[in-house]
Amino acid sequence: MDIPGFPARLAALNLLDAVLRRGETLDQAAHAALRPVKGDADRGLSRALAGEALRWLVDLDDLIDSATRLPLSPDAKVRSVLRLMLAGWLRLETPPHAVIATALPLLIGGPRRLAHGVFSTLVKRAAALPPTPTLPAGVAERWGERADAIAAALVVPPPLDLTLRDAGATQEWAERLGGLSLAAGHVRLARGEAVERLEGFSEGAWWVQDLAASLPARLLGSGEGRRVLDLCAAPGGKTMQLSAAGWNVTALDASGRRLERMQANLARTSLTAELVRADALEWQAPLPFDAVLLDSPCTATGTCRRHPDVLHRIRERHIDEMAELQQRLLKHARTLLKPGGTLVYASCSLEPEEGEAQARRVRLTPDPVLPAELPQGLAPTPEGWLRTDPAMLADVGGLDGFFVARWRA
User: Which CATH number fits domain 210-408: 3.40.50.300, 3.40.50.12160, 3.40.50.150, 3.40.50.2300?
Assistant: First the structure.
């Protein structure tokens, strides 16, 4: 259909459908959904529309329900189209006439008059969203007393964090890029510019990595040529951190495609690591390691700022499945350590079952995280662990949710 902006809206609708009906992540769905969309700007619009619809889904549905005489099915196509229409108007500031022109064609052969009527009613009412998104009931219950603060942190998508290859050049790169540094080897930038066009990308001076995601590798310190295993290593940010810190790195992952991407990033940054394709639960090391970093597969609910699909895809069964896998991975990781070696466990999840509950089962000597090892504004828990969530460091842009613990064998 030759309507400017229509392909981007159709792709956004397909993204929303993939998440809410098929349980896919936005990233998984993006390849197929965005293929027909031409141009980076329109592809970005598709992602933004779907992301904002998911971020504010509960509140958008409340608005829709307030303007319909009969309830719409939760999975009705017209409801999803209205979610995108309202997200475009209320979050992306698209004028109502442009919203109607580009979105109603999504319902050809369907209830276009209903969608037009509901949207027009809400425009006439000057409908508005609340100051912060309402979390789905199950999510709010799981996150307990931190739920409101985390929800407030979801209003604005996160800034862009870079990890530097040379931590000694932090001030230089912060000035060159016009960014803010919250720790040695870190620079934070405002969102907007394509990563590949930023100064330093082509020369491999840095890579994209949320500040919280950089903390587990930081807790291993300087390698001085010692051997470390990055278990479940993709997407590779921690492997590059460890290599840059002087570790002799073995990076293991089960996916050949992800390892190819890691190899490309290592080449771009002129860093080295031995890449191994294997099942992390089955692989046996020829020699034990001085340190093992296990950034475990998890539900990734800590990334809800940038991946709002996790608010709607993750259920208790997913948490239970991941917790069981994490327990097995931790048990195996301990067997790969030298006596006296260091084990760091991390997960980018806000669920206690994937963090605190796992740490309590580990029968190694605790090596508590020290305040001096952390960026200003973060502190260890009383147990000596680290727990972050998106509401922390909110005055400087926040960070992802992570759990990190450390032990000595």
Answer: 3.40.50.150
| 298 included as an active-site residue | no
CATH number of 6-124: 2.170.120.30, 3.40.630.30, 1.10.3860.10, 1.10.940.10? 1.10.940.10
Write the CB contacts of 360 (distance below 8 Å, at least 6 apart in sequence).
none
Q: Residue 250 corresponds to which tokens in the numbers above?
A: 């073995």
Q: Where are the domains of the chain?
A: 6-124, 210-408
Distance CA 348, CA 212 (A): 9
Q: Considering 232, 298, 304, 348, which one is annotated as catalytic?
A: 348
Show pLDDT as tens, one digit a residue, over the chain (409 residues): 677 789 999 999 999 999 999 999 999 999 999 999 998 899 999 999 999 999 999 999 999 999 998 889 988 999 999 999 999 999 999 999 999 999 999 998 889 999 999 999 999 999 999 999 999 999 999 999 999 999 999 998 899 999 999 999 999 999 999 999 999 999 999 988 889 999 999 999 999 999 999 999 999 999 999 999 999 998 899 999 999 999 999 999 999 999 999 999 999 999 999 999 999 999 999 999 999 999 999 999 999 999 999 999 999 999 999 999 999 999 999 999 999 999 999 999 999 999 999 999 999 999 999 999 999 999 999 999 999 999 999 999 999 999 999 999 9
